[in-house]
Specification:
Layout: E1 3-6, E2 18-24, H1 33-43, E3 48-51, H2 58-74, H3 83-91, E4 93-100, E5 103-112, E6 116-124, H4 130-133, H5 136-150, E7 155-159, H6 168-174, E8 179-184, E9 189-192, H7 198-205
Parallel strand pairs: 6-7
Antiparallel strand pairs: 1-9, 2-7, 2-8, 3-4, 4-5, 5-6
Length: about 210
């Protein structure tokens, strides 16, 4: 028997309702001693920031970073960003990339607007967790604010999080001085079953 279920809010399996995060410039860097120390350690790691424009590197990002990163975290239940949406963002933006020893280890899509710089899908090109411990994530988010300042864009949108005030991603983003804004609803449903049949697979392909 098959049952249509709404994803459990307490589970990390699926994305659920998203809360957009928007912050103004300058970031909380000046106010947070802890953030400054973490960034100093990241900068001492030798990793560098690169900003690209357009679709260049899109396929490698999708196949070698975004999808593998989602599957490492969520397994077969991973929900990845829509490919069309990523391409649409890249046409109005590009990638923020963190490089180590001449190779990209972490990347994030950004989209430029006249008043807001938005960031979206991201992924890690390596399964080696040491790049995150060395501060690749800190450098990536610092690069978001630096790019907004260079473009004279007054606000940044750091994307969505799960709707829990104790969510780790929410707390990390709040350290940069952002605040919650109007929620964006994304209802995700999953179909679970012990076995599949050709008829069920054909039905799923039409959804």
């Amino acid at each position: 028997a098959y049952e249509l279920k709404e994803c459990d809010w307490s589970s990390d399996v699926c994305s659920s309702d998203l809360l957009a995060l928007v912050g103004g410039l300058p970031p909380a860097l000046k106010r947070s001693r802890h953030l400054r120390r973490a960034l100093k350690r990241a900068e001492a790691s030798g990793m560098t920031v690169e900003v690209t424009r357009g679709l260049q590197g899109y396929e490698a990002f999708l196949e070698d970073a975004h999808i593998p990163s989602a599957r490492r975290r969520f397994g077969n239940a991973a929900v990845v960003e829509n490919e069309y949406q990523i391409r649409r963002w890249l046409r109005r933006g590009g990638f923020l990339r963190i490089n180590r020893d001449g190779a990209c280890v972490l990347a994030m899509v950004y989209r430029m607007g006249r008043t807001v710089l938005r960031v979206g899908a991201q992924g890690r090109f390596t399964a080696d967790d040491s790049v995150m411990r060395q501060g690749a994530g800190m450098l990536l988010y610092r690069a978001v604010f630096d790019l907004a300042a260079d473009l004279h864009v007054p606000r940044v949108d750091l994307g969505g999080v799960r709707p829990f005030l104790n969510d780790g991603v929410l707390q990390f983003k709040q350290r940069w001085g952002v605040e919650l804004t109007n929620p964006v609803t994304a209802n995700v449903y999953a179909l679970y079953g012990k076995d599949t049949t050709p008829a069920l697979e054909a039905w799923a392909c039409l959804r």
